[in-house]
Amino acid sequence: MLGKFKPVWMVESVYQISAEQLRKHNIKAVFVDLDNTLIAWNNPLGTKELLVWLEEMKENDISITIISNNSGDRVEKVAKHLDLHYVPRALKPSRRAYFRAAKQAGFPLEQCVMVGDQLITDIFGANRAGVRSILVIPILDSDAWNTKINRFFERFILKKLIKDDPNMIWRKTLE
Q1: Domain with 13 in it: what CATH number?
Q2: Could you tell me the sign of the dihedral formed by the alpha carbons of 6, 10, 14, 17, in that order?
Q3: Which residue segment(s) compose the domain that 90 sits in?
Q4: Total number of domains constituting the chain
Q5: Verdict on whether the full-model pTM lies above 0.70
Q6: Over the stretch 5-57, which tens digit does the pLDDT of each residue have?
């Protein structure tokens, strides 16, 4: 039953995912959650590490699309600053946003991956849409009130998933 929350990979940070690793898995488009995955909620312009990672993706023709449950204004500000496609008010775990993101990127869902820090929204949504998924450790420990509720339940889900599958460990790469 909890398998619908299980990510394909668990990587410590989105910045550790290289273009070479993505190519090995025939991934040409990355969908990424915004807050606590791509950026810290209190640093909307991102870090130098983020800019380096985005440049690597761009140089390797890997499309990046932000899929966020945040408001259009908030997501648009970051996406325009970073020159990325975006789907705001995604209502994750709804599948609709993943379909829109694939259309924007111009790739079939089989060549896409979702990177996010939440099992209940990012990973469950990706699994529902048929998109491979990567769970990352949140950038910050602080969350909005509604995310704190999700995190409470996610601790139990993740603990059970790890207990049932000892291969589910935090890694530094997709390998």
Answers
A1: 3.40.50.1000
A2: negative
A3: 2-163
A4: 1
A5: yes
A6: 999 999 999 999 999 999 999 999 999 999 889 998 778 788 899 999 999 99
